[in-house]
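Question (not urgent): is this output format expected?
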Amino acid sequence: MKLGYFPGCSLQGSASEFDESLQAIAPALGLELIEIPDWNCCGASAAHNLNRLLALALPARTLALAERTGLAEVLVPCSACYSRLILTRHELDQDEGLRRQVSEIIGMEYQGTARVLNILEVMGQIFQDGLKGKITKPFEHPVACYYGCLLVRPPKVVQFDRPEDPRTMDELMKKIGAKPIDWAFKVECCGAGFSISRTDLVAKLSSKILADAQRRGAEAIIVTCPMCHANLDMRQEKAEKWAGRKYSMPVLYLTQAIGLALGLPEKKLALHQHLVPVSFPVKAKPAAKAKAETAPPPAGQSEE
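Got this back:
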């Protein structure tokens, strides 16, 4: 599968482990990523609150560059970037005058032909055909699949999965051997862009997510959003202080969990870059049979 690729600012910086793990699993999955040349910041997460035209022009320029490159589909792994690109595509499709205005601003024609895909859509397409024995180390852990508040909303625009109880990530995790838990916070907000300005609010919201995942037996939280990862991993210590309890909950990108199931080295998946160590409880081994049951019978004595 050949796709255009928009990493966005986060995957080139604070969420580089998302990019590294995606690049690591791509060859094994038959995925060829063509990075959009000269792409720019999409404006997440606050540009749309300040200047509507700027908020539309930034994603539109990247999509226009994808069109110029001949890319029909563009993978956007970051949930915030995905939200900005798909919302821009929707708005410009609905308003021809606005589309012409934005085209003038970016200095190139935006046609709206490049389809925007999130990471779950792409992995779903790949997994639909089966992994043909590529899973060498099944990820046999109970996990909380955390979609966050952006990936499946607004439903009329993204038209992907169920907005209140999405299932795509859960099904993907099952295919690599994991056991997704049934929990109440899979689409609740973690605090998003308040990670810098209102760490107290992020601590409160993230703590509730971590607590529910822990209470229901999850050994890890699986995410696709760099901001969600930052709030649940980087801010986990602050969430623990707010709640007065310890979580020690690993937070992995979907691509990292898939990479582990494919048998790829942890360093290649950049697991060492997390603040909360990625470690799991040691699984109890089946009790060994008694020696008398396995030892051969004494000489001259029948097995009967």
